[in-house]
Amino acid sequence: MFSGSIVALITPMTPSGEVDFVSLRRLVDYHMAAGTHAIAPMGTTGESPTLSTAEHLDVVRAVVEQADGRLPVIGGCGSNNTRQAIRLSRAMEDMGVAAGLSVTPYYNRPSQAALLAHYTAITEASGLPQILYNVPGRTGCDLLPDTVGRLAELAGVIGIKEASGRLERVSQLRACCGADFLLFGGDDELALDVMRLGGQGVISVTANVAAAEMSALMNAALAGDWEQAEAINRRLLPLHRGLFCDTNPVPVKWACAERGLIDSAVPRLPLISLNHSGQERVRGALTEANLRAWIQA
C-alpha cells in the first residue's frame, strides 16, 4: 500500500506564527516534483501539539486538496485522548486521507494493555487505516513488539513507524507481525539499516529539505541496489544528524527556509528559531549534501 520516502511534513508558519497555507501548498508541489512517495502532515515534525483541532484539520485538508490524488496523504491523527484520536480519524476519513499516523498516547504513560484498548477503540470507531507511531523518546511510552503483534491482527492496523532508535526492533516486529505488516523507519540516520532488515520505507524528516535525494535513496534500497543506496546515504548522513542539533522541527524548518522552500523558518512557541551555531551546522550539512536553493519550475 505504501513504501519508499514518506515525508513527515513541516507546517510552515508566518513570522507571526500563523499557518502559512501558501507555503504549505507550495511544499506539496515540491514533493510531487521531487518524487516523494507519500506525505504525512500533522505529526511531530508538523508541530501538531501546538495547533488547535481546527488548524490541525485545515492543514491536512489543504494537503489533500493540493495533492489532488497524485500521491497518498497519511494524516497525523494520534492523541493522548482516545476520543480526540477518534474524532481526528473520522474527520480525516471523510477528507479522503489514505491512512492515519497514530502516535502512542504521550504523557499519560499507558500500560501495554491500555495501548491495546486505545488502538482497538480507534479502529472500531473509524474506518481509517492506522499506522502506529512509536517514539518513546518523545512520548514516555514504548509500544512493545508483542503488543504490536496483537494490534496487527486488527483489520484497521496496517503498519508502524518505529522510532525507538533500536534496530533489533525491526526484526522483532517482523517476526511478530508477519510479512504483510508495513514497517517504516522513523529515524533518518537508521533508515537504510531498517530497509536492509525488511522495512518498506521511512517517514522522514530529512525528506523535507532533500526530497529527491531521499526518494532516490529509498528507490535504490527497494530495488536492492545497496551500493547506490549507501552512496546517497553517505552524502546525506551529516544532514540526518544536523537536523537534530536542536529540537525537531526547528533545524529542518530553518533548512527549508535556507533553500527557499518556505518563506519563514519560524516555529510556534514553545519552540524558538534555530540559534547561530545550529544554523552554521545545518548550513554546512546542506553544503556537504550539495543541496542548493530549490529552483521552482
Polypeptide structure, described:
It comes from Oceanimonas doudoroffii. This is 4-hydroxy-tetrahydrodipicolinate synthase. One of its GO terms (biological process) is lysine biosynthetic process via diaminopimelate. The chain has one domain: Aldolase class I (TIM Barrel, Alpha-Beta Barrel), CATH 3.20.20. The chain is globular and about 45 Å long. An 8-stranded parallel β-sheet has the order 2-1-8-7-6-5-4-3. The mean pLDDT is 96. By secondary structure, it is of the alpha/beta class. The protein has 12 helices and 8 strands. 45% of the residues lie in helices and 12% in strands. Helix 1 crosses helix 2 (53-67), helix 3 runs parallel beside helix 4 and helix 9 (211-222) packs antiparallel against helix 10. Strand 6, helix 7 (168-177) and strand 7 form a beta-alpha-beta unit. It has helices at 21-34, 53-67, 82-95, 112-125, 136-139, 145-151, 168-177, 191-196, 211-222, 226-242, 250-258, 276-288; strands spanning 4-8, 38-40, 74-76, 99-103, 130-134, 157-162, 182-185, 201-204.
